[in-house]
């Protein structure tokens, strides 16, 4: 049963002590998060990775790209473990290194490689954290950077200081919502479809562009609609609508606020008792916040439960399984199951892109 599994995990963690640290993303199931030493959004978890350099193992309860990032930012001796290897991210899979390289070559042919009078290169590549390590490596190698949903504006500002335009992947919505908030007009944000020549754009459209958006999206967040927001406002006068920036632009525009998972959690924590919130993000987080703050009314905008199906693939049975292997005997890990390692040929460049993000100042 879940209760017994929970007891078993607590005992294994007590045996392992400081040798292991468990990190958990906000979208994880409650049965998993109750064992996490740190809970956070994807930026906070990247930082938390570096907070326990003494730990032999980092058990990452999140998705594959987060575990790769943890491997890049942790010491080489530390083993990063993803309890279920099937926990990927469909958005991250929407941009692959071959298609991005092909896009880059077409852009280079169009714009050349010479900087303008202000020293700005033609294009800076920016990848959302939700991408493979290979794409982070691509960005590191080509003068680019990584962003998360909590620092996308800071990162785009960094990029515009160094480049005439940005190639943003994989999430079109985060790219569009952020650039729009910074005053970039929609007609200067063409979308790049890798199946078409010039991404399906004319040369003139690309010449005029400020942000070229990859065609990726999150299948969880694209379910939210303006109609859901309208219904929430009718049924709950005074409701505060907060959505994640992976939602489509019309939804972000219709909401009162948008922000990362941590932004959403903090907004609710800071609200006066008796507030009502309609939230546009993954259901596990919304349900946990609703349970944590019974003084508020908190509900998900989407009436049909929408979990992130890949985050959901990690449950406490997998956590118990990887911890059991670590407990071993004689104080040494008997076995490290499900270790995530980034290949050396991309790791160096990927770290450069991540470190640029960590150093970027608002
Ligand atoms: P944040 O935790 O950065 O808000 O990202 C949400 C998400 O979709 C992670 O995959
Ligand atoms: Fe990927 Fe969307 Fe799940 Fe986040 S919520 S891990 S972007 S599929």
Automatic annotation (TrEMBL):
> What keywords tag this UniProt record?
4Fe-4S, Cytoplasm, Iron, Iron-sulfur, Metal-binding, Pyridine nucleotide biosynthesis, Transferase
- What is its cofactor? [4Fe-4S] cluster
Q: For [4Fe-4S] cluster, which residues are the binding ones?
A: 89, 218, 308
GO term, biological process aspect, one = 'de novo' NAD+ biosynthetic process from L-aspartate
GO CC annotations on file: cytosol
Query: What's a single GO MF annotation on this record?
Result: quinolinate synthetase A activity
Protein family according to the UniProt entry: Belongs to the quinolinate synthase family. Type 3 subfamily.
Outline what the protein does.
Answer: Catalyzes the condensation of iminoaspartate with dihydroxyacetone phosphate to form quinolinate.
Query: What name does the UniProt record give this protein?
Result: Quinolinate synthase
Q: Which organism is it from?
A: Cryobacterium zongtaii
- The gene name reads nadA
Parent-protein start and end of this portion: 69 to 430 of 443
